[in-house]
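Thread amino acids onto this structure.
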């Protein structure tokens, strides 16, 4: 499997890259640290020897179903304990109450008391945090304001849109004024306008100095929010870093290219004569070519174009997308 072959290089990249990631903290006080963490659910391995260090800013957490994103987030928020290894928040064991105050969590599920208003819900959560009444009220109003829900908070939760529900979840996560905000699939099911508003809100929270860990199935969605991602596959963090670095690292991995050209059948034959080409399909004027190494392919194809005076109308790497990168890492199709 490709991801297994990639792993050592990726781990090095993760370390190198994280040290240069925009940081709100001095290097000695990482916000979130996973040290060789494994989590078993009975016989099922949810997380497999994960080592990870986040220092602030926004980190996207991406992976297909069952990759281990929720498990990692629950460990970070102290909801579950690792079977092996250690999770710390600002140096404190994530399981400890002091660490939990430092972390706000937005779960992917909507588990609300639907008859409550948004304000009542957030206030109840503030009371449950143990704040005295006046402080609880103050924090409720402050967080509702922060998420832009002050004027809509007296409606019942059952009438809220998905985006409004997400904001209310966000408000309760912000009650303790956390250093780290963990958001599990916050954009799922939300319409494009609501998504854009939430993305803006997340950016503004990060700009205020909060670290954000945001999970999604969709790397392309996360790319709008951050360039810094951790890619999970089968319980492991397969890669951490900026997408550029991950792309660079994947330079020598297979790709597919669409070429619109005159005489496509002749061109297909010429392409097949190149060493790095592993397959060619022709449909109409389009040739889809699969090659081992992008670098070598583009060099050799360039020579071919000149030598054969090919009339190339379009050249498009089909995999040069976030999904394709994920696909390489997962050893699958790239669709998540
Ligand atoms: N409570 C549990 N009991 C048993 N197995 C679990 C439990 N929670 C998660 N798992 C298993 O652990 C693995 C990782 O699951 P996890 O929910 O962390 O993945 P995920 O990336 O969040 O997936 P999804 O995007 O579908 O939520 C999966 O194989 C899953 O079936």
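Threaded sequence (336 positions):
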């Amino acid at each position: 499997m490709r991801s297994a072959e990639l792993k050592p290089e990726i781990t090095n990249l993760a370390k190198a890259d994280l040290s240069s990631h925009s940081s709100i903290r001095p290097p000695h006080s990482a916000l979130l640290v996973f040290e060789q963490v494994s989590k078993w659910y009975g016989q099922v391995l949810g997380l497999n020897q994960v080592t990870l260090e986040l220092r602030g800013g926004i980190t996207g957490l991406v992976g297909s179903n069952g990759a281990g994103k929720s498990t990692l987030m629950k460990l970070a928020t102290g909801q579950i304990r690792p079977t092996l290894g250690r999770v710390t928040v600002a140096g404190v064991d994530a399981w400890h109450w002091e660490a939990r105050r430092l972390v706000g969590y937005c779960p992917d599920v909507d588990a609300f008391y639907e008859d409550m208003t948004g304000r009542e819900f957030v206030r109840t959560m503030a009371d449950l945090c143990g704040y005295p009444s006046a402080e609880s009220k103050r924090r409720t109003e402050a967080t509702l304001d922060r998420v832009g829900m002050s004027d809509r908070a007296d409606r019942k939760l059952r009438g809220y849109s998905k985006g409004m529900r997400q904001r209310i979840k966000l408000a309760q996560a912000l009650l303790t004024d956390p250093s780290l905000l963990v958001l599990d699939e916050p954009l799922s099911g939300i319409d494009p306008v609501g998504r854009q508003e939430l993305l803006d809100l997340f950016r503004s929270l990060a700009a205020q100095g909060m670290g954000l860990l945001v999970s999604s199935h969709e790397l392309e969605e996360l790319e709008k929010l951050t360039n810094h991602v951790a890619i999970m596959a089968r319980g492991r963090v397969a890669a951490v870093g900026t997408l550029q670095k991950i792309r660079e690292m994947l330079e020598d991995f297979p790709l597919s290219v669409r070429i619109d050209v005159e005489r496509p059948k002749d061109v297909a034959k010429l392409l097949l004569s190149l060493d790095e080409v592993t397959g060619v399909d022709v449909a109409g004027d389009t040739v889809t070519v699969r090659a081992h190494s992008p670098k070598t392919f583009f060099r050799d194809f360039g020579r071919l174009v000149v030598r054969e005076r090919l009339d190339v109308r379009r050249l498009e790497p089909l995999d040069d997308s976030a999904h394709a990168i994920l696909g390489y890492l997962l050893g699958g199709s790239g669709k998540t």
